[in-house]
């Protein structure tokens, strides 16, 4: 397969899965392996195209960002609490990510880890959907400091490929009483600093791999992921509001089982 097609496919996969509770990193690893390419070689690319998905959130929620920015200038309570909650939830990922960077990176090419994480995470989602007791939170500004810290700690589980950052944060928030829609939006906004930090870290660590061709591939992959993510985010809120997360849980279980079967036959 030509490299150009691989880049486009991986961009589509990133845009499709970044904000769904199915693990974008896991799907990118499996897609790379399935298409016959070395997942370790493409690990940097898979992280570096995340700015496309980040931009999708900024474009779709620009009014919220603008309102919060203006509110911070006037030290408005809602804007301050909104920003505090995101920062508090972001800090654990920074600490754990820097401390365990080498261990995390060693798992980025392990398709078997992804498969098992998909299955276990699928059953975890079903459990949360069944037993979590949530109540209207009133948006991210209505999330408590304790809930924000809990979401940040749970997000660290997503450093294992296949767990899903969005899945961990959304289901983690719901486990601590945050309503479904607010949990999803919290996950969206938390993605901006988290994915930006992960991308900057990987680019700084592996800058020697950024040849002219790789930079072009990253730019194209990020552009494709942006377009796809914009479409997916809008549909995701509607699906979750109506059907919950169970469809994604069953998808994870089936996809993980299929991946294990495929890996055993290779």
UniProtKB/TrEMBL annotation:
<feature type="transmembrane region" description="Helical">
    <location>
        <begin position="186"/>
        <end position="205"/>
    </location>
</feature>
<comment type="function">
    <text>Catalyzes the dephosphorylation of undecaprenyl diphosphate (UPP). Confers resistance to bacitracin.</text>
</comment>
<keyword id="KW-0472">Membrane</keyword>
<comment type="similarity">
    <text>Belongs to the UppP family.</text>
</comment>
<keyword id="KW-0133">Cell shape</keyword>
<feature type="transmembrane region" description="Helical">
    <location>
        <begin position="82"/>
        <end position="100"/>
    </location>
</feature>
<keyword id="KW-1133">Transmembrane helix</keyword>
<keyword id="KW-0961">Cell wall biogenesis/degradation</keyword>
<keyword id="KW-0378">Hydrolase</keyword>
<dbReference type="Pfam" id="PF02673">
    <property type="entry name" value="BacA"/>
</dbReference>
<feature type="transmembrane region" description="Helical">
    <location>
        <begin position="245"/>
        <end position="265"/>
    </location>
</feature>
<feature type="transmembrane region" description="Helical">
    <location>
        <begin position="42"/>
        <end position="62"/>
    </location>
</feature>
<keyword id="KW-0573">Peptidoglycan synthesis</keyword>
<dbReference type="InterPro" id="IPR003824">
    <property type="entry name" value="UppP"/>
</dbReference>
<feature type="transmembrane region" description="Helical">
    <location>
        <begin position="217"/>
        <end position="239"/>
    </location>
</feature>
<protein>
    <recommendedName>
        <fullName>Undecaprenyl-diphosphatase</fullName>
        <ecNumber>3.6.1.27</ecNumber>
    </recommendedName>
</protein>
<keyword id="KW-1003">Cell membrane</keyword>
<keyword id="KW-0046">Antibiotic resistance</keyword>
<keyword id="KW-0812">Transmembrane</keyword>
<feature type="transmembrane region" description="Helical">
    <location>
        <begin position="106"/>
        <end position="128"/>
    </location>
</feature>
């Amino acid at each position: 397969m030509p490299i150009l097609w691989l880049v486009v496919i991986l961009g589509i996969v990133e845009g499709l899965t970044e904000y769904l509770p199915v693990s974008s990193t896991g799907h990118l690893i499996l897609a790379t392996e399935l298409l016959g390419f070395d997942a370790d070689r493409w690990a940097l690319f898979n992280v570096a195209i995340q700015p496309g998905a980040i931009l999708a959130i900024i474009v779709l929620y620009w009014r919220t960002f603008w309102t919060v920015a203006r509110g911070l200038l006037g030290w408005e309570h809602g804007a301050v609490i909104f920003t505090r909650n995101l920062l508090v939830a972001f800090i654990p990922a920074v600490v754990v990510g820097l401390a365990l960077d080498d261990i995390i990176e060693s798992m980025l090419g392990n398709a078997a880890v992804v498969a098992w994480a998909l299955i276990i995470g699928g059953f975890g989602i079903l459990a949360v959907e069944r037993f979590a007791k949530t109540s209207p939170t009133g948006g991210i500004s209505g999330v408590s400091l304790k809930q924000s810290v809990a979401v940040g700690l749970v997000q660290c589980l997503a450093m294992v490929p296949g767990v899903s950052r969005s899945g961990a944060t959304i289901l983690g928030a719901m486990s601590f009483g945050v309503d479904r829609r607010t949990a999803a939006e919290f996950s969206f906004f938390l993605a901006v600093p988290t994915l930006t930090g992960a991308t900057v870290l990987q680019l700084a660590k592996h800058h020697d791999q950024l040849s002219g061709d790789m930079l072009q591939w990253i730019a194209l992959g990020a552009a494709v992921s942006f377009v796809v993510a914009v479409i997916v985010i809008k549909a995701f809120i509607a699906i979750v509001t109506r059907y919950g997360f169970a469809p994604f849980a069953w998808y994870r279980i089936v996809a993980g089982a299929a991946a294990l079967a495929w890996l055993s036959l290779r």
